[in-house]
Amino acid sequence: MVLNYIWIAFFVIAFVIALFKLLIMGDVEVFPAMMNSTFESSKTAFDISLGLTGVLSLWLGFMKIGEQGGLINALARLLSPIFTRLFPDIPKGHPATGSIFMNIAANMLGLDNAATPLGLKAMEQLQELNTKKDTATNPMIMFLVLNTSGLTLIPIGIMVYRSQMGAAQPTDIFVPILLATFVSTLAGIIITSLYQRINLLNRTLLLTLGGMSATVATMVWGLMQLDKDRMNLMSMSVANILLMTIIIAFILAGVRKKINVYDAFIEGAKEGFTTAVRIIPYLIAILVGIGVFRASGAMDMLVEGIGQAVVFCGGSSDFVGALPTALMKPLSGSGARGLMVDAMNTYGADSFVGRLSCIFQGSTDTTFYILAVYFGSVGIRYTRHALVCGLLADLAGVIAAIGVAYLFFG
Asked: Which residues have a Cβ under 8 Å from the Cβ of 362 and sit 6 or more positions away?
């Protein structure tokens, strides 16, 4: 229901602004630009879905091997003490626990192509537990918020873009991104737990969150001892080695269980194809709405208004140039990526705005895209508090990103 209102707002606000620009400012190109954006956005949505088909088929194929080989269930049992408290409505040892963990792990390593299929698989398993098939459950919402908060340990893609844009130290945003995204994720967990009345003040969760904080701090310290070339090499190597290790582990688990690994892969791949086709309408709907909103100039007006408000309040407006990336990220990952590159091109890769735009890009995820795709894949229409919690986690990440940027580069 909330997505319905947001989607309507995109079009209504865009139309009003475009009408104002046409009648008052004489801008005769705004309506053609908006109409062109609808065609371009729908084509982009279909291209994304088409490209996602192969990736979904690949990873859901391996997931099916992991399921039949018993590895997913073993992982679920291992994580039960933590997940039974964070996801109290999921039965102990349910396969969804393992899928959720695999998705979060892929996101943490910056492996977006692997994370989405794993996330869709987890959502399907959570839907099996759902008694109201058109309404999001508490575990679904917690899982979505963990995704939208964008916890990333190794932002490989952003470091590659910085290198291509001529940054002197492409990895200098590594620690700031890690700090900002950790704040975003922690805020998302706390906010969602308050909504769902989950008690975070228990020994297991406190030890887990404390252990995560200590692990992040240790990893940051270790990587900071390396020069930039070795840090890049280490980051990429660790991510890819872990990913290949997971694939081999799934296959070996299947062999150990004496299942037909090839047939299991094909069965899972078929599910991936079906899922990719099912999400096309939802993806077209959300991307077209975002495209019209951008083409009308509403995004530019919003950024300019924020900048003037900050200056009026006596604050520093140095960060305003990077805000388009932060505002676009919940709407479109590719759009935010384009704005990040544009900021580095306009202000310089090593400028404050250029670096901050990279931190924005890495500190949160595409909230509207994730909600549309994940909920759309299982037919959820009523998202309850998912969007509110996701956007509040995004806001925490944005504020943390600005503070961290001033701390490191201000």
From this structure: 150, 152, 155, 158, 173, 177, 180, 181
